TrEMBL record:
GO annotations of cellular component type: cytoplasm
Name of the featured protein: Protein yeeZ
Domain of life: Bacteria
Molecular function GO labels: aldehyde dehydrogenase (NAD+) activity
Domain named NAD-dependent epimerase/dehydratase: residues: 89-212
Lineage per the UniProt record: Bacteria, Pseudomonadati, Pseudomonadota, Gammaproteobacteria, Vibrionales
InterPro entries per UniProt: Epimerase_deHydtase, NAD(P)-bd_dom_sf, NAD(P)-dependent_oxidoreduct
């Protein structure tokens, strides 16, 4: 590998976001590895040109050298994208922290050069107003607290070779909150602002890292448009031909607005899905 170039990428977690991200890198001609928990699903990744590996976290072996050859190849990579959602249950947050710590340690031992951790703007929790990348996080959920703990661990362990990318609420094919709000009555916080980001723009952001590894280690993504929840979800229901949700009367709570303009500048990118009110949900 030439210094600074990313010729091989491994994606831990080829789900709703990870799979299209992996396919994108395959189309760019980059050697792409991906993981799934299920062996058959991991093998099926080959149909998309992805080197699939069955990987269950936490890794159970203390000695990384004793891992299967394919797993060694997976971790011996120029860039590891860690895209692991928290599980369910009362211990899910602590389990996620333990899983990613073990994953990180194994990756480092087996030759991984750089890591990107897909995090969440839930780390901003109780923050209000305009949120910049430098805003001090104040998570108020177990998941938000777990993600912040993982961020700190990876940045401390990897230094300048680690990046954190916090995603706002994800929308895209077969994923849109209006499905759950349509027709509901008495929904609260209608005047709160939405913070959403489309799958395509997330892929663009990660792809830009191949060309430019920013000095800023904490980035976040959100569309530039932030309509109120009532305005947005009523419009989406209308565009999708669904029953409109009904919100209760509420005041503007001055809730958080994720400003990702600086991240877009650092990554030399423009979001393709900034005009949220004009795009029907992809149900």
């Amino acid at each position: 590998m030439q210094q600074g170039l990313i010729n091989k990428i491994s994606i831990c977690g080829c789900g709703w976001f990870g799979l299209p991200l992996a396919k994108h890198f395959v189309q760019l001609g980059i050697e792409t590895w991906g993981s799934k928990q299920d062996t058959e699903k991991a093998q099926a990744l080959a149909e998309s040109g992805i080197h699939g590996v069955a990987l269950t976290l936490p890794l159970s072996l203390e000695d990384p050298a004793a891992l299967a050859p394919q797993i060694k190849q997976f971790f011996n990579t120029d860039l590891l994208v860690i895209n692991v959602p928290p599980g369910r249950g009362k211990d899910a947050a602590e389990e996620l922290i333990a899983k990613i710590k073990r994953l990180s340690d194994t990756a480092k031992a087996l030759g991984c050069r750089k890591v990107v951790f897909i995090s969440t703007t839930a780390v901003y929790g109780t923050c209000k107003g305009v949120i910049k990348e430098t805003t001090e996080p104040r998570p108020n959920t177990l998941s938000g607290k777990a993600h912040l703990a993982i961020e700190k661990y990876l940045l401390a362990e990897w230094g300048s070779k680690a990046l954190v990318v916090r995603f706002s609420g994800l929308i895209g094919p077969n994923r849109h909150p209006v499905r759950f709000l349509s027709g509901r009555q008495g929904i609260e916080n209608g005047m709160d602002r939405v913070n959403l980001i489309h799958l395509d723009d997330c892929i663009t952001a990660i792809s830009q890292l191949l060309n430019h590894w920013p000095q800023q280690q904490v980035l976040h993504l959100a569309s530039a448009q932030h309509p109120t929840r009532e305005e947005y979800y009523c419009k989406m229901a209308q565009l999708a031909g669904l029953p409109l949700p009904v919100f209760t009367d509420s005041i503007d709570q001055n809730t958080k607005v994720i400003d990702a303009a600086q991240t877009c500048q650092w990554l030399s990118m423009n979001n393709d899905h900034d005009n949220l009110l004009s795009e029907p949900p992809e149900l």
